[in-house]
């Protein structure tokens, strides 16, 4: 079963955008090859739900991070190699002799391109072979080492014995080029694809592993679904510089985190950090935390920036209701979900928002196989929930006052805050005086 995360969730957490420099995808998009980028895209598009698969992938990333190796091939040069090898599609080995004959009379540009691609490919194949022999089998997870052993066997084939001798050569005869070209592009066509596949994977493993190491991220340990635990230590948002970290634990006995705090106290950032960590952990990627373990979930839903839809005639409130309904359908279908609601029902009046938040949170909390983070400005809801639910944990992000100027610690504390500083901030900015035209310049 595929991990569930819809478009709204991906946008709320800014996960996938390839064209935003501040997206989560952009953090890891330091691959060098087209194939490596395709693998990275697939990993982001399809997080895993199998415990063994997640932990195996994490172990490969972590192993390459420890090695501190740089990708051994030049990306642009490798594209030349890719184009050279793929140019044989639909042709046979005799075509190179025909091109060579035309080249003698200066009539074939394609032969010159093949010649250049051949020399570049020989060089890069030797570089990659040397790289594989530098790897310590004891430092590599078994699943990856099997692929290495398979590719090493290709390089050891007697029909490629000439490869080392041709390395660095620029003056091979036309006959030898034609002979060796036939070996690479025709006789070993499938083997070359296998080598390129390992190059793509290595590119991706190195990119993610090095990002994890350089960023100080941790690798999460995936646990069985029926453990119903999510434990994060030192959690922070991966895009922030010098972030403040927090610890969060959710379990079957305490599966709802009820979060309060003033505007700008950091509620949305904390919830986004949690959601991003959940998503990356299911990909087997390093997360912005010092430690994490989690029971594998079926999916993740967020409701942070729910837009109205004027084309469909939907108000902001009704869009929120539909969003909650969709989550309710997934949770009611016995799926193990992680759900994040930022200020439920903020599109309606306070009385309705109070009643709806109380009822919906109480109903959701009964699904102890799921994990919820719910924030609100209506702190009275927390007191009512505490009287009827025994599986909620109440935390808040405090505001520290320096006279009339608020500041924020961004550190979670136990309890429910009574901070209400909206009018204070409005007064500090002297908005009413500006409206009345009495603000002194």
UniProtKB/TrEMBL annotation:
Keyword Acetylation: no
Domain DNA mismatch repair proteins mutS family: 254-440
Gene Ontology biological process terms from the UniProt entry: mismatch repair
Keyword set, alphabetical order: ATP-binding, DNA-binding, Nucleotide-binding
Source organism, top-level taxon: Bacteria
Pfam families linked: MutS_V
Gene Ontology terms for molecular function: ATP binding; ATP-dependent DNA damage sensor activity; mismatched DNA binding
GO cellular component, one term: cytosol
Record-annotated membrane-spanning stretches: none
UniProt feature coiled coil, ranges: none
Protein name per the record: DNA mismatch repair protein
């Amino acid at each position: 079963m595929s991990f569930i995360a819809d478009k709204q969730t991906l946008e709320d957490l800014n996960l996938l955008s390839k064209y935003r420099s501040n997206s989560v995808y952009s953090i890891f998009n330091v691959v060098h090859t087209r194939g490596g980028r395709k693998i990275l895209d697939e990993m982001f598009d399809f997080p895993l739900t199998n415990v063994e698969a997640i932990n195996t992938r994490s172990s490969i990333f972590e192993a390459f991070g420890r090695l501190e190796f740089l990708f051994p091939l030049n990306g642009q040069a490798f594209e030349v190699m890719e184009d050279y090898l793929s140019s044989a599609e639909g042709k046979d080995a005799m075509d190179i002799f025909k091109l060579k004959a035309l080249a003698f009379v200066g009539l074939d540009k394609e032969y010159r391109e093949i010649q250049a691609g051949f020399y570049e490919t020989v060089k890069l194949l030797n570089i990659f072979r040397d790289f594989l022999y530098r790897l310590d089998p004891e430092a590599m997870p078994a699943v990856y080492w099997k692929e290495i052993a398979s590719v090493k066997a290709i390089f050891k084939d007697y029909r490629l014995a000439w490869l080392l001798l041709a390395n660095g050569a620029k003056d091979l005869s036309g006959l030898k080029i034609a002979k060796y070209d036939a070996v690479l592009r025709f006789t070993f066509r499938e083997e070359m694809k296998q080598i390129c596949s390992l190059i793509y994977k290595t590119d991706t493993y190195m990119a993610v592993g090095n990002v994890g190491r350089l960023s100080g991220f941790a690798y999460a340990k995936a646990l069985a679904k029926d453990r119903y635990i999510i434990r994060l230590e030192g959690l922070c948002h991966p895009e922030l510089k010098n972030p403040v970290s927090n610890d969060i634990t959710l379990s079957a006995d305490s599966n709802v985190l009820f979060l309060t705090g003033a505007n700008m106290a950091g509620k949305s950032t904390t919830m986004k950090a949690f959601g991003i960590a959940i998503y990356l952990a299911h990909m087997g990627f390093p997360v912005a935390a010092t430690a994490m373990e989690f029971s594998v979930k079926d999916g993740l839903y967020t409701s942070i920036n729910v837009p109205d839809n004027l084309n469909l005639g939907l108000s902001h409130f009704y869009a929120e209701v539909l969003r909650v309904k969709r989550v309710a359908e997934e949770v009611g279908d016995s799926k193990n979900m992680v759900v994040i609601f930022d200020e439920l029902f903020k599109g309606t009046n306070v009385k309705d928002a109070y009643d709806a938040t109380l009822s919906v949170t109480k109903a959701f909390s009964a699904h102890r196989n799921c994990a919820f983070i719910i924030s609100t400005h209506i702190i009275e809801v927390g007191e009512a929930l505490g009287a009827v639910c025994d599986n909620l944990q109440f935390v808040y992000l405090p505001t520290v006052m320096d006279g009339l100027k608020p500041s924020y610690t961004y550190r979670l504390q136990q309890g429910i805050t009574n901070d209400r500083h909206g009018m204070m901030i409005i007064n500090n900015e002297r908005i009413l005086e500006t409206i009345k035209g009495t603000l002194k310049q």
